[in-house]
Amino acid sequence: MSNATTLAVGFPDLSKMTVARQPHWRRWLAAAAILVTLAAIGRAFANGQIEWSYVSRFLTARVILEGIVNTMVMAVFAMALGIALGVVVAIMRLSPNPVLKSVAAGYTWLFRGTPLILQLLLWFNIALVFPTIGIPGLWSARAVDVMTPFLSALLGLGINQGAYTSEVMRAGMLSVDAGQYEAAKAIGMGRLRALRRIILPQAMRVVIPPLGNEFIGMVKATSLASVIQYPELLHSAENIYYANSRVIELLIVAGLWYLLVVSILTPLQMLLERRFARGFSQTGR
Amino acid sequence: MTRHLVAIRSISKTFGEFQALRQVSLDVSAGEVLCLIGASGSGKTTLLRCINQLTPVDSGGIWLDGELLGVREEGGRMHRLTERQIARQRLKTGMVFQRFNLFPHKTALENITEGPVQVQGRDRQEARSEAMELLRRVGLTAKADAYPSQLSGGQQQRVAIARALAMKPMLMLFDEPTSALDPELVGEVLSVMKELAQSGMTMMVVTHELGFAREVADRVVYMDHGAIVESGFSRDVLGAPREARTRAFLSAVI
Ligand SMILES: Nc1ncnc2c1ncn2[C@@H]1O[C@H](COP(=O)(O)OP(=O)(O)OP(=O)(O)O)[C@@H](O)[C@H]1O
Ligand SMILES: [Mg+2]
Fold it and tell me: Which residues does the UniProt record annotate as the domain ABC transporter (chain B) (predicted)?
């Protein structure tokens, strides 16, 4: 080590010292301020006119549990419909066919451009426009019978979601290198097969974080279906407080359930992300 | 005279204002190895892409194995083939890209079996054992389950060659297969290609590796500004070029 000693001449020898930990005074102060604020808010709620016994009693009431199940069922089905539509519309939008392109653009424009609650009400009241629906000569039914709250909510939420998801999917597909399309073509794949086997699986890696976001949004958006009598969580809570006037207590019950569900979704998203990261890093197997 | 596997008749291609190919005609016989050389922008990649129909030609025709590519003549007019028909025609050619373009979400083995299983509908087990044989040929038996991100550039390119060969093409197109590689990795890819040439595969290779062209190619084609300037036996074109432009290019490269 003669070289090192020569270099060190005239400089203090730092080789034995360690770097001291920096005191983070400002972080401690900020944390303390936040804790004090939270405690004050908590105290206000504890002393306010809230009967906590009602909260704990109704947290697991049958109607509430049915409500959360209906909420999750609707969120999952509407999101599935939204993703299916989103993929199809994104593919149409990226196709060279101008007719498909404009249909896709028009769909996104229409359903992204109007309020979701308005779309839900329109689906629910569609009987006012088309009293009977069906396939001429094969099957027909009265629209009021077909457009149950469930179906109206599913169509309203799913079709609206599709308009947003198509943009997420399109961004994901554009993020895949153009060389991948060419390599897929070069082994004889047609456009659709290349999309399904090569492009979409790679796009998934990019779209899962925003889709997770959208799904969390969907869980909460199902509460809008309460206006068309779909018995989801908020609707159930409302029905109870119409009877017992415990408004705040039941809103807290609903809020706690939404928070719980969303908290469970985050780690699930992590698992999915890891699944689709396959092959993209040295360790991600 | 040997039968021409590839017959290219006065094809032209313009991108906007820019003419990338001017009336290019070229024949390639079965089993022949042809190297395309030329300055950057001279149209070598475009020519290969036209043969594989990744780029449609503006005029002229390309015949592969006696079949006109991309269009069909009917009632005195030309009609473009459907995408499905073009995909079927592409099965006769394999293509190796400068930047490998392996599928990053699939292992080396899956990259190779993807075409045979998904496109040709071959039996999965059979495709796997053929893929293993191809991996052995390119010297990567141990890497069957590695993802592309776990392979060196040279290994990725060898997998890409195996992927193209798995489709059992009659013509292999190589677009500068070694120019994205570190110098010490070039040799392993070239030796795989040389072995392939010796096995009788018809190959069209765009390359700047003149040593490879001299040793392996039957014929060398020199292109400039979208046109073929000179073509002939490799020892003639590389050793005693007739055209001044070829001479200038070769002296600049060496
Ligand atoms: N899709 C395209 N759009 C517009 N111009 C293009 C396109 N593809 C190629 N060109 C142009 O055509 C010319 C020929 O390109 P080509 O890639 O065939 O050259 P090359 O001989 O392969 O060059 P290099 O040695 O740099 O790869 C270039 O000037 C290029 O800019
Ligand atoms: Mg090129």
Answer: 6-250
